[in-house]
Design goal:
The structure is a homodimer of 409-residue chains. The first copy, chain A, is built from eleven helices and 23 strands. Chain A is 29% helix and 29% strand. Chains A and B meet through strand 1, strand 2, helix 2, strand 3 and strand 4 of A and strand 1, strand 2, helix 2, strand 3 and strand 4 of B.
Amino acid sequence: MHRSHLFAPTRREVAADLGSANAELLTRAGYIRTAAAGVPIYLPLGLRVLEKIARIVREEMDALGGQEVIMSALQPKELWEETGRWQKLGQNDVMYQFKDRSERETGLGMTHEEMAISLIRDAQPSYKDLPLAIYQIQKKFRDEARAKAGLLRGREFIMKDMYSFHVSEADLEAFYKQAISSYLKAYERIGLPVIATIASGGVFTENHSHEFQTITEVGEDTIYTCAKCNQAINDEIIANFPDGCPNCHAELKPERAIEVGNIFRFGTGYSEQMGLTYTTETGGREHVWMGSYGIGISRVMGTVVEVSHDERGIIWPRSIAPFDVHLLDFTKDGQGEKVAHQMKAAGLDVLLDDRPVSAGEKLAEADLFGIPYRAIISEKTAGQIELKARTAPDARVMLLTEVISTLKR
Amino acid sequence: MHRSHLFAPTRREVAADLGSANAELLTRAGYIRTAAAGVPIYLPLGLRVLEKIARIVREEMDALGGQEVIMSALQPKELWEETGRWQKLGQNDVMYQFKDRSERETGLGMTHEEMAISLIRDAQPSYKDLPLAIYQIQKKFRDEARAKAGLLRGREFIMKDMYSFHVSEADLEAFYKQAISSYLKAYERIGLPVIATIASGGVFTENHSHEFQTITEVGEDTIYTCAKCNQAINDEIIANFPDGCPNCHAELKPERAIEVGNIFRFGTGYSEQMGLTYTTETGGREHVWMGSYGIGISRVMGTVVEVSHDERGIIWPRSIAPFDVHLLDFTKDGQGEKVAHQMKAAGLDVLLDDRPVSAGEKLAEADLFGIPYRAIISEKTAGQIELKARTAPDARVMLLTEVISTLKR
């Protein structure tokens, strides 16, 4: 991709009230724009990052046995009345609800338990059809009073949500444990440090849920982390742990964190409310055991920026960077074209800055964009390339073949 | 993929009031479900088809120079007041509009001219930044009173919409012509016959727009096609062509058709309303020339089923089929596993029907699903495979290597 063709409108300054590093840097670097508070627009660079995060999550959900679907955003009221959540989420929480022109009460999906259950119920499953897990990656909507600029607290955001269905508590438990592993693997591949955090179980169960939290002082959640082992407790249930860490009894210390995922066991609670049963081996009918599993795809993108940037710009992990390498052409006769072509032929995704602007402007933009490697071709390096990792203090001059082998590692 | 694990809840019967082949067959075959009239849910098989259509369209838009973005579904009223379309689309047309809990007037995106223009305006383009084309593939919403089951007339549907920006009428014209070629190529790759149809120009211009129409007796549009050349005219402007076909003066005959895409030239109309200008080479400011280009991704899927099915089920074109081959295992000891493995190793996407159900049930489902090739392994073919194209009258028995070379063609 040529920088001269890329729609990435950068800004030197942004409004001071953006209030977060992710909003400021993603806006300045031309990754996102904001249609209204909490309503982001993804420009080409931003969409590339989002798609890479989604692909990793999709691969891990597929490996876990999940099957991808797309449920509807428009939600008929009748469905939500089966669980009593139409009123609850409309009044106390943040579901968009309105009447259409035929006076039908309609909502916008902020979660999809009711619809997922209705799909499985409609299929009249037998024990042979279970376990079954369906997931989707799409926009969700929350009529959020405290919406913020950036990607952390949105009215419109992108979620991966999965729903699993089982014949027994034991089967749900086994799947739930596998889901924790899949989640940790997904975040590790994305390059975002998280800690699995015990949280309250919610409406149907004494079983705890788990949140996946990224520790950062700008986080809105408080969690208590164990100094000795890899355990954390959400502050809403910390009172249940007077003896410290449940694993090793070491002291638990408060930290600020951003929640980037959460998983729940519902037992048979929803299935009882909505009449979701399966046919047993002996022809009887039993309620289905169920769990749900969320990852905030766009929130992950914002959180990565919060924890991975410096005063000059973003620092993307390689796996979700919009390009592998940012090639700055300082030559007068466009020698970068040939180098970019060879890098591309070697399987690298290259952003070539071919614009007739100053070296200083190109260098500043490379730091702002945060692509993992910056390569410079100039008359002064005599056909060699100056390569610098975004996180390294210094550059090294090397042959193109060496650059390629370094980047392919 | 094993059929025993695939969530594809088939139905023998569907409600008689579904009223269209695409609604009936996609529902019976477990590709889609319906949350409410015009609000589809894509199950795993349906999502596979949708993604393949989207990929072809994406490739053609990228080749045309389009850059992919994702704009917001939530639309602030203020933006639409700049063109006067808030009131127009809310009252006379079908835009969802409601107040959020902070009493802000909000709409759901049914088209994105205003938002696309605001993005480019905000970037303060110069002549060097143009031409520029941005596109997105995502859900759109219409508060459609005559919504139907299936994928042809939805409240919630998936569109590709592109917006192009130019320094001159000549540049817009050149891009518009290229877009017609790209569209014809995309439909050809998808396997959907379309005819480019001259339609009225709309609000800002005397220039005609073009619709891409698929001729079928279940279509809701009427177009007039030339018996001699590849030309068609939409019935809304047929009165302008009293002498027959504008190319060859042959007679124009009415046909029923489904509109699966449309493209418009706006001239500088929207740019004048919204103050979208670019800096010229001499430092002046001129209004930007603009076009927009839509393809109904989910409507294309429904239209393919309308024009490509028989009394037994769907007939997918190879390029958008959910799998390349549907392998039915009639053996008692699961010999299909090894065959499926070898097909997969050869790069084929295989659906293996490994269920302990009758041969008749498997054969009927293969016809219903409409995967382009059906392969059968049974004790009676002595290690060979019986291969039949969905559209062929008879099967042929051949070695696996021959099957693979036939399918890879």
